[in-house]
Amino acid sequence: MQPTNNVGALSDSWTKCDHVELVPRPSGKAAEFGPLKDGYSFECSTGLSRTLLSSPTCPVLEEFGKKLSFEIAVGLNGRVWENAASPSTIIVVSNAIMKSESLSGVQQRIMVQKLLDRIQ
Fold it and tell me: How far is CA 94 from CA 25, 38, 82, in A?
């Protein structure tokens, strides 16, 4: 089954590659995966995307997740999609993610706390 997304559309899915054909095929359930609507998307380095996906949790996502409600999808290709009820939440979280790459874990936590103090 081939996806029916428009060219350039962001989509949340799992893919697997059949080594015989070398063609990626979607393997997610239709109810769980699909086009990412609304929200904001941006690009970051592949190193930062791996950090965002890593375990233990990225300090920026962990600290914001304690106080704010938002959705995020991160691809290993450096594409990040984020959505929240408030545009200000989207802006604060996406800017903090982009700035976090050059900061240590402790510095990331301090940055997030300062940002949260300003917006609440």
Answer: 30, 15, 7
